[in-house]
C-alpha cells in the first residue's frame, strides 16, 4: 500500500510539471540567427562565401576568389596554407546551400556583382576550362590534332636519328670547303682558283691567268687594284675588279675564306651558329641587336641588305652583290628594318631564308614555316595580355626576359667548350628541323584553348 502511494504522488508531480513548467536557469540553445558571419566568410575577400570551394587541405574559398588566385599565381596551392591541392577543386554543395539559406540577401548581392565584373567572368571561364582539361583522360587528351602531331614528331625523330647517324658515320656532314678554316697565307694555287670560282660564273673568265701565274695565298694577299688591271690578269671590267677586291679585303680581314652557305658557316662558327639558331627563335630582337653590336660587317650588314634591299638602279648582277652587302644602308633601308624589327622580327628571318632558297631549298622552307608559327605564338601572347588587362605588366616581363636571355647566353658561353660536338650537332639539327613540328602543336593548343594558356 505504501508503495502504491509513492507512485501516485510521483504521477501528481509529473502532471504538475507538465501543466506549469519551471523556469530553467540554463541558457537557451543557440538558434540559427545567432550564427556568426565570420564562420562562413572567405579568407581571400573576407566576405560571405559564394559558391564555396573546398580544397584538399580543408580550407574554403569563394569560387571566383580561387580562380583569380590561380590565374595570378599560376600555382595549384591553397592561398592560405600553400598546400597543393589534388585534382580539380569542386564546389561544396552542402556549404553552398547553407550559406544561401542563412545569408540569402548577401549571397544574391554578391552574385550580381560577380556577374557584372567581366574580369571575374573570364577568370572563372579559364579556371573551369583548366579543370575540364585536367578531367580528361590521357587517351582523350591525345586524340585529334595533338595525337597526329605527336605521331608525326615521333616518326620524324626516328627518321632524323637514322639519317644523322648515317651522315656522321660516312662523314658527309664534314664535307665542307676547307678554305673556311685554312689560313689564306697557306693556300695553294689550286685553292686560290677554287676561291675565285666561288665568286660566281663571271669569275671563271679570269681563272686562266691565276693558274698560269701559280698564284698562291701569299701572292693573293699582295694583289691590288693596279695589279689586277695590268697583265697578266687584265681585269678591265671595273665592277668585276671591285668585286674581287672587296672579297679579297674580307679574306684579309678574316684570314680565311668567308662562309658561303649555312653549312660552311656552321663549320666555321659552330658555337655561334648554335647560339644564333636558338637565340633568334627565343628572342629575335635581342639577337639582332647583338649582331649589330658585335658582328656588324660580317653578319648584320649582309642580313640587313638581304631583308631590306636598297631600291636603286645599281647593277643587280651577281658580281655586284659582293659590293652591295658591304655598303652602309641608306635611311630608307634603316626605316624599313626598324619597323620590321619592332613589329615583325620573325619576318626578317623569313625574308633572309627566302633569299637562300636556291642554296638551301628544304632548310629555308623549314625556317620560313617556323617563323610563321613563332609570329602566331607571339601574337597570341600579346592578345592574352591585352584581353586580360595585364598589358601594364609588359615592361616587367620584358625586363625578366632580358635578364633570362643574358644569363642563359653567359652560361652558354661558359659551358660551350666542354659540350661534345655530337651533342651540339644533335641540338643544332633538332632546333632547325623539329622546332616547326613542336610549334605547330603549340599553335593548335593556343587556338583551341586560348583561355587556359598562361600569359
TrEMBL record:
Biological process terms in GO annotation: apoptotic process; proteasome-mediated ubiquitin-dependent protein catabolic process
Annotated PROSITE patterns: SAM_DOMAIN (PS50105), ZF_RING_1 (PS00518), ZF_RING_2 (PS50089)
Record-linked Pfam families: SAM_1, zf-C3HC4_4
Subcellular localization, as worded in the UniProt entry: Endoplasmic reticulum membrane
RING-type domain location: 42-82
E.C. code: 2.3.2.27
UniProt catalytic activity: S-ubiquitinyl-[E2 ubiquitin-conjugating enzyme]-L-cysteine + [acceptor protein]-L-lysine = [E2 ubiquitin-conjugating enzyme]-L-cysteine + N(6)-ubiquitinyl-[acceptor protein]-L-lysine
Membrane association type: Multi-pass membrane protein
UniProt name for this protein: Bifunctional apoptosis regulator
Organism: Dicentrarchus labrax
